[in-house]
Amino acid sequence: MTAAKILVVDDEAAIRRLLRGALERGGYAVVEGTNARDALASLGIDKPDVVLLDLGLPDRDGLELIPLIRSKSSARIIVVSARDDTQEKVAALDLGADDFVTKPFDTDELLARVRTSLRHTLSSEAGAPVVTLGDIVIDLARRRVTLAGAELRLTPKEYGFLGELAKRPGRVLTHVQLLRAVWGPAHDSDVEYLRVVVRSLRQKLGPGGMALIRNEPGVGYRLG
Description:
Number of helices: 9
Radius of gyration: 18 Å
Distance between the termini: 25 Å
Low-confidence stretches: none
Number of strands: 12
Mean pLDDT: 90
Helix content: 40-55%
Strand content: 15-25%
Largest sheet: 5 strands, parallel
């Protein structure tokens, strides 16, 4: 099997060396870029599966680069940045990033995020309308959720919320993205709606509910 290819875009040589070492030990092929121009050129030449993107690039802000990458490639985008402001994270995710890791980072955690992104990329390419996470099966085509074979009775809003996450497993969806998709644009600031649905869903999903629906404080939620 061909090793998945990871594009590391960062202008700091020390960070690139650290990431290259960790990724190659994890069995991945690594290509590097030091700026936005390198990143965009690499999309067509190297065709990476995942892009690890710093936001503080010398020739262009990384936030501007996210939609450009998204328009040219199906690669998963994980932002790896020292910017830890919640609004920066939300902006990156709203622009099309799949995940956000703050520097300084733990390399084991970063590798886990990469593995998750690749696993769900393969699932998406297969076009499977069914998402299976342990004993929980979410059938998107039939709008049906089962736990250990037993169908769960979900409200329309509960299913709508879970279905949105299931369409993009592993990706962080912001509060605004979820509210607009499930409740409509008139409710895109009513975060309490999300909290109520999440509490109810976690109870219905059993002991694994907390681990299944993960909270990114101040930002949004992810599945798995």
